[in-house]
Amino acid sequence: MALWQVIVLGLIEGLTEFIPVSSTGHLLLVGHFLGFESPGKSFEVLIQLGAILAITSVYAAKLLELAANFRTDPTTRHFVFAVGLAFLPAAVIGAAAHTVIKTYLFAAPWLVCVALIVGGVILLAVDRMPLKQRYHSVFDYPLLVAIAIGFAQCLAMIPGVSRSGATIVAALLLGADKRSATEFSFFLAMPTMLGAFVFDLYKNIDQLSGGDVANIAVGFVVSFLAGVVVVRYLIDFVGRHGFAPFAWWRIIIGGMGLGALAVLG
User: How many Cβ atoms sit within 10 Å of the Cβ of residue 53?
Assistant: First the structure.
């Protein structure tokens, strides 16, 4: 795989991981048209480590504050438990369905395109709904709301759905405002993406060559740098513009992808 291709895919991962457009869907589509095939489709998952470190670095102060207050502050404990509960469905279902997801869903670029379009329409509709906002802080989410968001996250095992998109839409429908829905999605991304990285590395480490590891390392660095930029500015962008720009992007990319598949195969 050429270096420029690795850099392009790393940029795509970092720029799209935390916005509701499906980073995995974009990686699979671009990889398909570039003719790129990683062992066990591991590259697309393992370069997420860069995005994980990006969000961890940006939220380092908040994470340290949560750790410091966990023993003494009930609100902090409630929030940490809420994120843990939200993570559980993806951990259990993702591990059980790992082979099916990698073997069938990751190998269907048309499915990615359809999921992008359908998800874009849903995101556009939800963004325009006059939803009642009951939760304005991630610390206010009830545990039932958190676990419902966690089950919604499992929809993102279908490439093209978007992990952040599924969690944000679920949070909005359950009464969260846009800023807190986006922030909760950030916090939930940390254990979810780290779990996916560790599990995928465990399943595919025997298939990785020295060249594969080098490609993953380069992709990791690029995705980290791009991810830092997105995480720093996304919440403010959403507060000003909502989710409509991402919805239209999904619809356009999904439509172009279907057209390209029809012409090129």
Answer: 17
Distance in angstroms (rounded) separating the CA atoms of residues 19 and 26: 12
Give me the residue label for tokens 């699979």: 28
The phi, psi pair for 4, rounded to 5°, reads -65, -35
Give the distance from CA 186 to its chain's centroid: 9
Average pLDDT over residues 133-148: 96
**pTM exceeding the 0.85 threshold for the entire prediction:** yes
- What is the three-class DSSP state of 135? strand
Task: Map out the domains of the chain as residue ranges.
Answer: 60-198+243-264
Rounded distance, CA 66 to CA 239, Å?
Answer: 24
The β-bridge partners of 135 are 176
Q: What is the DSSP letter of 129?
A: S
**Burial label, 265 (beta-carbon count in 10 A; 0-12, 13-18, 19+):** exposed
Tens-place pLDDT, residues 33-83: 888 777 666 777 788 888 888 989 989 999 999 999 999 999 999 999 999
> For residues 258 and 265, what is the distance between their CA atoms, to the nearest angstrom?
9
All residues at 6 or more sequence positions from 132 whose CB lies less than 8 Å from its CB, including other chains: 175
Token pair recorded at residue 250? 């999904």
**207's tokens:** 């298939």
